[in-house]
Structure formats: structure tokens, C-alpha cells
Write a structure and sequence with these properties.
The complex is a heterodimer. Chain A is an all-alpha fold. Chain A has a domain at 23-117. Chain A is 69% helix and 0% strand. Chain A has 7 helices and no strands. In chain A, helix 1 (23-35) crosses helix 4. By secondary structure, chain B is an all-alpha fold. Chain B contains 7 helices and no strands. In chain B, helix 1 (7-23) packs across helix 4. The longest helix of chain B is centred in the middle third of the chain and has 40 residues, at 67-106. Chain B is flat, with a radius of gyration of 21 Å. The chains are: A mainly alpha, B mainly alpha. At the A-B interface, helix 2, helix 3, helix 4, helix 5 and helix 6 of A face helix 1, helix 3, helix 4, helix 5 and helix 6 of B.
Chain lengths: 207, 189
């Protein structure tokens, strides 16, 4: 967790897989992410560890998982752990990732069960936690900007993006109907119309 | 009430939480209302006041907010109850997510797969930005929060590999300073 980054600050080159994907490495990544997950907004952190730092996945592989994790029932971050773990190491990878992510919070929760009255009684601690949350939202903002940049293909995609933002963020409409309308529309927009869809790709090597 | 853990109690915990796992569309916040109804109103495992206290503490410990279910189970049925709650809370939704991811990956390279992938990205972008707005409003929507957010986002733009810890600590220090200067006022919950 504390190894110094080898890459120099300015390098925008996509990272190659510099650290091999093992169960231990996967567990450790998600253990630390889970342990320091305050106030939501975990996706940017997962993206940093998996995509940017270790180069285990590309943004194009990672971002659909973000949407999927938010659309499917369950907690976004644990769904994402399942998505990433499965992509890297199959069913046992998914299990290792989610167990890693929940280990720290579970222990903390047991501690909190005994000490929560004392924690809430300290306003200064409360203030620091709010600051941590604000910084975490900033990380999410940066990730949103990256996602906006990645999805900027044509006017219609931008319309979908802004519509989803307005419907969920401003109008506070329920997620399910919005997604049921937005996803098919967005897929139709991205559909390769006119391109001969005669692809007989046999034997997809799925891990 | 911390009597010895009975099997029927553990089964009750699983029966309450497992459906919530699948029903929690849009994240853990979706389970608060039904969870409160079950454990406070119907089964009277804890009081409403206790529920609120446990809810508050879950926001200040790491992990998903739905851990509240496990925390309540721990109070009612001890460590075994908490473990049963964890499985009930996360196994059903994880299995669904696994299944969908697997189908997704099996069709990699087909034209519709690429279209769905490209189609999901703008939806994800909209959802992420909506999440930014919602969290910003939840946190009070004040100038200080906005400044910390933009500062952190700017730092990450400048150096994409930057570790989150310094940024989170910088946020904590900023707020702590603001609190000590009397800029904000935290009342006991």
C-alpha cells in the first residue's frame, strides 16, 4: 500500500500491468479501500488502484462496471468489487475482492458497537469526518469529469448524459425508471448502424 | 436484549435482510425505511432512538451504510448474528452482480457488447455527476465543501496518481481549522 509510485507525475501513458494479479494482491487492494471508505465515493479510489496504478484494467473496461454497479441492486462499491474481482480472477476473485472490502468495515463496526456513544459526543471529531467526506466528494467530481470526457461521442450521448444528471441529481426521480429509459436509448445511440454486424466470433476466451 | 442466540433469531435476521439486499436499488440508502419498520415497529428489537444512534455511527465508520443491518444484528444476536447479517446483506446482490458481469464478459467483442459498453458510459457519467450533486447537498452545500471538492478534484487533475490519504487528511484539517475558528457548529446528534 505504501510503495512509492515509480511513474513520474506528468506521464499520461496508460500504465501496463506492473504488479501481477494474485489473490493476495487483490485482497490487499480491496482491504485498504474498504478500510478507508468514509462517506461513499469509493469508485475513484478503486479506479486509481486498479486502472491507474496497477494497470489491471482499462478505463473502457472499468467504466461500464461503474454504471452496472449503480444500476444493479446492492451497494455500488461492493458490486464494483465483484465486477473487478470477476474480471481479473473469476468467481474466486469476486469473492476475494468483496471479502477484502468488507473485512475492515466489519471489524470497525464491532468496535463502534461498543464505543459509539463516546464517538458522537466529540464535535471536533465530527468536523474532521465531514472534511474527509468533502475531500471524498472532490475525488468523485474528478472521476465524473473523466467519465464525461470518455463518453463525449456525439451530441446525442451528451444529451443522454445531461438528461440522466438532471433526472437523478436535480429532479430526484427514482433510479429504476430513469435507467430503464436511459440505457436502451443510449445503447441505440451507440449502436453501429450501417456496419455489417456479421461477426462470427467463436470461442470467447472468458476467464 | 442480549439473550443467548437462538437459531430462530438468526433465521429471522436472514429473512429480514436478504430481500433488502436484492431490493436495495440505488445503493444502501434504499433499505433504511424497510429496515426501520422491521426491527423497530414490527419486531421491536431496538427502539427508534437506538436505530437513529446506530444509523449515525454507521456514517462515521468505514464501509457501506447497509452495515447498519449488521450492527443491529450484532446488538440483537451477537457476533454470530452479525456474521449471518453480513452474508444476508451482501451475498444475494453479489451473486446477481456476478451473474450479470459474467454474461457481460462472455459476449465481449460482439457488436452489441461494444454498443452497450459505449452506451453505458454516458449514463455512468450522468449518474456520477448526480452523485456529486447529491453528496454536496447532503453535506450542507456550503462554500467550504465546494472549495475542498474543487481543490481535491484539481489536485487529482494535476497529478492523477496522487494517493487519496493526503487529500482526505487535507480535507479533515481544513474542516478542523474551520471548526476551531468557529466557522461551523457541530451539535451532538
Amino acid at each position: 500500500m505504501s510503495e512509492a509510485p515509480v511513474t513520474q507525475p506528468g506521464s499520461a501513458a496508460p500504465a501496463e500491468a506492473k504488479i501481477p494479479v494474485t489473490y493476495t494482491a487483490l485482497y490487499n487492494v480491496f482491504f485498504w479501500i474498504g478500510l478507508f471508505s468514509f462517506g461513499g465515493g469509493l469508485m475513484p479510489w478503486i479506479q486509481r488502484e486498479i486502472v491507474i496504478k496497477r494497470g489491471w484494467m482499462r478505463d473502457e473496461e472499468f467504466l461500464p462496471g461503474v454504471a452496472m454497479s449503480q444500476i444493479l441492486p446492492g451497494v455500488n462499491s461492493t458490486n464494483m468489487a465483484v465486477y473487478v474481482g470477476r474480471h481479473l480472477l473469476g468467481v474466486s476473485g469476486a469473492a476475494v475482492a468483496i471479502i477484502g472490502m468488507l473485512t475492515g468495515p466489519f471489524v470497525f463496526m464491532l468496535v463502534a458497537a461498543y464505543s459509539y456513544k463516546a464517538i458522537l459526543a466529540v464535535p471536533a471529531l465530527h468536523a474532521a469526518m465531514a472534511g474527509v467526506a468533502a475531500a471524498a466528494i472532490g475525488m468523485l467530481l474528478r472521476m465524473g469529469v473523466i467519465a464525461v470526457g470518455t463518453s463525449g461521442r456525439g451530441v446525442l450521448s451528451v444529451v443522454v448524459m445531461i438528461s440522466v444528471f438532471l433526472a437523478i441529481g436535480v429532479m430526484k426521480w427514482p433510479l429504476v425508471p430513469v435507467v430503464l429509459v436511459a440505457v436502451p436509448m443510449s445503447v441505440l445511440i451507440a449502436w453501429p448502424w450501417g456496419v455489417k454486424s456479421k461477426v462470427k466470433s467463436g470461442g470467447d476466451a472468458d476467464a | 436484549m442480549r439473550e443467548e442466540t437462538s437459531l430462530s433469531l438468526l433465521i429471522s435476521i436472514a429473512i429480514i435482510l436478504a430481500p433488502l439486499s436484492i431490493a436495495s436499488i440505488g445503493g444502501a440508502t434504499a433499505i433504511y425505511a424497510p429496515l426501520q419498520h422491521e426491527v423497530v415497529d414490527l419486531r421491536q428489537w431496538i427502539t427508534g432512538r437506538e436505530f437513529l444512534d446506530l444509523f449515525a455511527i454507521c456514517r462515521f465508520t468505514p464501509g457501506p451504510s447497509s452495515l447498519l443491518g449488521a450492527l443491529i444484528a450484532f446488538k440483537v444476536a451477537g457476533l454470530l448474528g452479525a456474521l449471518v447479517a453480513m452474508v444476508a446483506l451482501y451475498l444475494p446482490s453479489s451473486m446477481l452482480c456476478y451473474g450479470v458481469s459474467r454474461v457481460w464478459a462472455t459476449h465481449k467483442g460482439k457488436p452489441w457488447h461494444t454498443a452497450v459498453e459505449r452506451g453505458l458510459t454516458p449514463v455512468a457519467a450522468g449518474l456520477i455527476m448526480a452523485g456529486v450533486l447529491a453528496l454536496f447537498q447532503l453535506s450542507g452545500g456550503d462554500l467550504l465543501t465546494g472549495a475542498v471538492m474543487v481543490g481535491v478534484a484539481g489536485a487529482l487533475t494535476w497529478k492523477r496518481q496522487m494517493h487519496p490519504f493526503p487529500l482526505l487528511i487535507a480535507g479533515a484539517i481544513t474542516y478542523e481549522a474551520a471548526y476551531l475558528l468557529g466557522y461551523m457548529n457541530y451539535v451532538q446528534t
